[in-house]
Amino acid sequence: MSEGLQGEKNRKLQWNYRTVIPSAGLLIALLTEVMIPNHKDTKYTDLTNLRTVLIAALSISLLLCLLSLFIPRLRKRYAYEGWFIGGSGIFVTLINILTAKTHLLPQLYFPSLSRVFNVYIEDRDFLLTCILSSFTLLVEGLIIGTIVGVITGILVGWSKSWSYWIYPVIRILGPIPSSTWIPLALIIFSAPKGAAIFLIAFGVWFQITILTSSGIQATKKSYFEVSSTLGASSLQNLFHIAIPDALPSIFLGFFNATCSSFVALMAAEMMGVKSGLGWYINWQKEMIAYPNVYAGLIIIAGFCYLFITLQFKVRDKLLKWQKGVIKW
């Protein structure tokens, strides 16, 4: 009995110890920034954006560490993430040393982190416009591609006649990357925005179609036999059995389509659209403004992460019996 209590006590001490690791990693990054001088050739040495970000992150980590002493659930989660957050602080330290402190990496292509963070201050209004433009294109392409993909997938998965005519077309056109359709899209659509939406929708359509049809075809025949015995019509079997049973596959297709749609979005915004994150990164690359390029890439990474996280929250809410089957 005493050994069990001692083991439980040691476990609690271990969790408490791991909650300090994020603060330790961020403190190392902050001390490196403050105490080690920048290289004499470093541009914009007066910028303190990295220092400000590290102070804010360190303050938040200390607050979470303090709260974790009183909230067991927070302590467990924060301790689990401790090594990753602390490692991120060490990674920032290494990047800072290799760029601003020593110039071991060429300054033109690898600017200091302070210059990257400064972009969010100087270009904040323009970046917000680009984020809104990209979000609009992405949502419109996802909605159109999802609607068409679900309809096509239902036809292919449910009807042998429709499958006979449509499925060969899907097998031929579907695997073609969206970016290869750029010349044709520019001819068909008069406005670049319409062409961009088409490219995103095309990539989404293929993923949704394949997994929707697969989900419907995988529905157990015994379900239809029982419902037909009880007097269900063909449409009732489709809408009350086949489609609900295929929902996990449809959401999986939507997840895959969302990931590929970001690739299509970047390609679509480089063919005449005058706003958007993909266009912004390409424009800044041509201007050799690599701090802006990295700032745009960070926004895209965060944007993609939040979008997919929200998607999984909705999925877990609608498909409670499938919660945790696919983790994000």
UniProtKB/TrEMBL annotation:
Give the matching SUPFAM superfamilies: MetI-like (SSF161098)
Per the record, its GO cellular-component terms are: plasma membrane
Q: Where are the transmembrane segments?
A: 20-38, 50-71, 83-105, 126-158, 164-189, 196-218, 293-312
Any keyword Transport? yes
Q: Where found?
A: Cell membrane
The answer on whether this UniProt entry bears the keyword Transport reads yes
The protein's matches in InterPro entries, at most eight in alphabetical order, are given as:
MetI-like (IPR000515), MetI-like_sf (IPR035906)
Mainly localized where? membrane
Q: Domain of life here?
A: Bacteria
Q: Please, one GO biological process term?
A: transmembrane transport
Q: Which UniProt keywords apply?
A: Cell membrane, Membrane, Transmembrane, Transmembrane helix, Transport
Please list the residue ranges annotated as the ABC transmembrane type-1 domain.
131-311
- Topology of this chain in the membrane: Multi-pass membrane protein
- A Pfam family the protein falls into: BPD_transp_1
Record family assignment: Belongs to the binding-protein-dependent transport system permease family.
What is the protein's name according to its record?
NitT/TauT family transport system permease protein
